[in-house]
Amino acid sequence: MTYVTIEAEDGGNFQAYSAAPSNGGNAPGIVLIQEIFGVNKVMRDLADGYARLGYHVLCPDIFWRIEPGIDITDQSQAEWDRAFELFGLFDTDLGVSDLNSTLSHLRSMPGCGGKVGSVGYCLGGKLAYLMATRTNADCNVSFYGVGLDGLIDEATKIDAPYLSHIAALDGFVPPEAQAAIKSGLGGNPLCTLHVYDQQDHAFARQGGEHFDKPAADLANRRTADFFKAHLS
Fold first, then answer.
1. In this model, does residue 25 exceed pLDDT 80?
2. Please, are residues 27 and 55 in contact by the beta-carbon 8 Å criterion?
3. What is the CB neighbour count within 10 angstroms for residue 89?
């Protein structure tokens, strides 16, 4: 496994898992944003998967300010408890700052040529939305982002393509929150929203309780097409 060190805007540094395309040539980049379980095997496998599609990928440790190196799963109650503890301690604004530092670092890496986007899952889905509203990433993708309804006033700042995958039965994003998201983003021609009927939160997390292969395959295909269209 390969990691790089990134300097934070306010001092200090943190690690990011790095995956590169096999062809070794210049390629666009993707900032991959973790769930609440840290940069674990699920996220590293995702990074490797995006690299196989032809992208330079960095998946930063956004919990480093709380505890560096978090790597847990969704397979035990103790891990879920720890994950939600980390979620509660996480500073969103500093997290976006660290992701912006990651974006800049990726753009400066040898071999990363052209555009750079982001994609995030769960907490990362929220942060990918904020990458769309607060940074100059070239495009951004949210998988079942949480808390977007409380940030919908920032939607007017989106000036690059944004894609959101919404689970219709998401236990963490209730119907009223989904309605606010659709209302706030639906009229923006830069925003594409896909709703997955009968799907719950984290339907694309392999090995997770709610994993659904057909829905995951569809969302992943739409994401790959989106990146191909906007990062090429």
1. no
2. yes
3. 11
* Cross-strand pairs, 213: none
**Mean pLDDT value of segment 61-67:** 98
Residue 122 half-sphere exposure toward CB, CA atoms < 13 A: 20
Predicted TM-score (pTM) of the model is 0.97
* 201 given a catalytic annotation: yes
91, amino acid identity: D
- Among the listed residues 56, 201, 210, 230, the single catalytic one is 201
DSSP states of 182-209: HHHHTT-TTEEEEEETT--TTTTSTTST
Catalytic (active site) residue 153: no
**Among 61, 138, 149, 170, which one carries the catalytic annotation?**
170
Question: Domains in the chain, start-ordered, CATH in brackets?
Answer: 2-231 (3.40.50.1820)
Give me the amino acid identity at 180: A
Position 45: which residue type? D
